[in-house]
UniProtKB/TrEMBL annotation:
Belongs to the SepSecS family. It catalyses: O-phospho-L-seryl-tRNA(Sec) + selenophosphate + H2O = L-selenocysteinyl-tRNA(Sec) + 2 phosphate. NCBIfam families: selenium_SpcS. The keyword rRNA-binding does not apply. Substrate binds at R104, S105, Q112, R323. The modification N6-(pyridoxal phosphate)lysine is found at K294. Converts O-phosphoseryl-tRNA(Sec) to selenocysteinyl-tRNA(Sec) required for selenoprotein biosynthesis. This is O-phosphoseryl-tRNA(Sec) selenium transferase. Keywords: Cytoplasm, Protein biosynthesis, Pyridoxal phosphate, RNA-binding, Selenium, Transferase, tRNA-binding. The record marks E82 as: May act as a substrate filter by repelling compounds with a negatively charged alpha-carboxylate. Residues 479-490 have a biased composition (Basic and acidic residues).
Length: 490
């Protein structure tokens, strides 16, 4: 890469200052930081690895520098097209300058001619994400492959993967085997593609809910070549545990059936990452879709698609219709540069170190209230506790009370709930099985959680459960008094 001497702009070839009255040595010292910043960026592009973290002021300076390369910021530029990055509000400029967006109408990964700076940001983001997956999370199969960062949530990214598979498959392949996981996104993704959903049932093994592999094999054998692909899930709400993607990938390889893995927030789990690597090495994996916000702690709206076949991953980017919003990559660009590789490794490691504490606190609250923690080995992100001593109505009250007490993210799943999604009827919706048999509550120890939050979670949950019991006892005492009054009247 050519060396950029920014100081040369203000210091002439004769070594004298072009800015009258300012000593040359002062200029060189002041501008060395600017040159260092550009060198930092160039090393990232040439070495293909995430650079050491930068302080926020330098990241902002780099952002301003890169956005100045986009055509709308050229003083001499006159836009004569229908889309020229014009803003009606000057206030919007304070949010960043990636107004042209990213990609082109034929490919979200293509360089945008009007936005050289935005294109550089996209390149750095792809390099950074691939570096984290390949080197930090030990996904060696990415060495000969690539990643595609999409400005779409997990569900829409799965939809784009399905459309990509549909385009390259026979017209008779119209069915999708879907290992049941009670989240609406996957169902809607399949239905939005005009494909037929074939739900693979789950089975309950002690406390856990897992995919029935025998049923999966039977469905695959029965429907044969009409199956477009199989969608499995690795990150899920307890008591559902991650699919056995290693075994499933072997089955799909033997049947030459594409495999799409919904790995929404699985990157923070070593157990899941190890399964992904084994699945690629021993079976068939076409696409893995992971959320950006859940794994990298950025605003909602993006996902990364990766897999062992470079061509297939690039094809997903070509399926995106039109130019894309640049906000997602800008957010990730800032986060990658500020946190760095070691920073993300520490965030993921901190979560793993916090797990025993979280499980201990959750279990103690359950035991103190006459309940127990569900044993869901294999799911090291989401955990659950029974609510056997509470009625369905009280379970609903618990969920509301937790939210109003600023304890977000907890899910209370009552029994006997059915839900219709796009014409598909799901009994026991929320538990990923027709009848789990008991009401329960789930909570997650996800990346970004702090130890003080775990302690406060335990206190608020315990207080909430005890308050529900007190209300019940108060109602019962009131009923007893009413009965006594009735007897006295008699």
């Amino acid at each position: 890469m050519p060396k950029l001497d920014i100081a040369g702009v203000l210091i002439g070839a004769n070594g004298k200052s072009a800015a009258s009255g300012i000593p040359v040595n002062h200029l060189r010292v002041g501008l060395s930081a600017h040159s260092s910043l550009l060198s930092h960026l160039l090393r990232t592009l040439s070495n293909r690895v995430l650079p050491p973290p930068l302080p926020p002021p330098q990241i902002l300076a780099l952002l301003h520098l890169l956005t100045s390369l986009d055509t709308q910021n050229h003083p001499q530029n006159i836009g004569c097209g229908e889309r020229e990055a014009r803003l009606a509000s000057s206030l919007l400029l304070s949010r960043g300058g990636l107004i042209h967006g990213i990609g082109r109408s034929g490919d979200v990964n293509e360089m945008q001619p009007k936005a050289a700076g935005s294109s550089v940001i996209c390149c750095v983001v792809k390099i950074g994400v691939k570096d984290l997956l390949q080197n930090s999370l030990k996904m060696a199969f990415l060495k000969k492959s690539t990643v595609t960062v999409l400005p779409t949530c997990t569900g829409l990214s799965i939809l784009l993967c399905l459309l990509t598979l549909k385009k390259s498959s026979p017209p008779t392949a119209t069915k999708v085997l879907w290992c049941r996981i009670d989240q609406k996104s996957c169902i809607k993704s399949v239905q939005s593609c005009g494909l037929t959903l074939l739900t693979v049932p789950t089975k309950k093994v002690n406390d856990t809910v897992t995919t029935d592999l025998v049923a999966l094999s039977s469905l695959l054998a029965f429907h044969g070549s009409s199956v477009l692909c199989c969608i499995t899930t690795t990150s899920c709400f307890a008591p559902r545990v991650p699919d056995d993607i290693v075994s499933i990938s072997k089955i799909l390889k033997s049947k030459n059936t594409p495999h799409l893995i919904n790995n929404a927030y699985g990157l923070q789990s070593n157990f899941i990452n190890d399964m992904l690597v084994q699945s690629v090495n021993k079976g068939r994996v076409d696409y893995v879709v992971s959320s950006l916000d859940k794994n990298f702690m950025v605003p909602v709206g993006g996902a990364v698609v990766f897999g062992p076949d470079k061509g297939k991953i690039k094809d997903v980017g070509k399926m995106y219709p039109g130019r894309a919003n640049g906000r997602v990559v800008e957010d990730l660009f800032v986060s990658l540069l500020e946190v760095g590789r070691e920073g993300y490794e520490e965030l993921w490691e901190y979560r793993r170190r916090l797990l025993p504490k979280f499980v201990k606190v959750f279990g103690e609250v359950a035991e103190a209230n006459g309940e127990r923690l569900l044993k869901t080995e294999g799911n090291d992100i989401s955990f659950g506790m029974t609510l056997e001593n509470f009625t369905n109505e009280e379970c609903g009250d618990i969920g509301s009370m937790l939210f109003t007490r600023c304890l977000s993210g907890c899910r209370v799943v009552p029994t006997g709930v059915s839900k219709n999604i796009g014409g598909e009827e799901f009994r026991g919706f929320g538990s990923s099985t027709d009848d789990y048999g008991v009401c329960y509550l789930t909570a997650a120890c996800a990346v970004g959680m702090k130890e003080r939050e775990v302690n406060e979670f335990g206190k608020r949950l315990d207080s909430c459960l005890k308050e529900v019991v007190k209300k019940r006892e108060k109602r019962e005492r009131k009923k007893e008094k009413e009965k006594e009054k009735e007897k006295e009247k008699e």
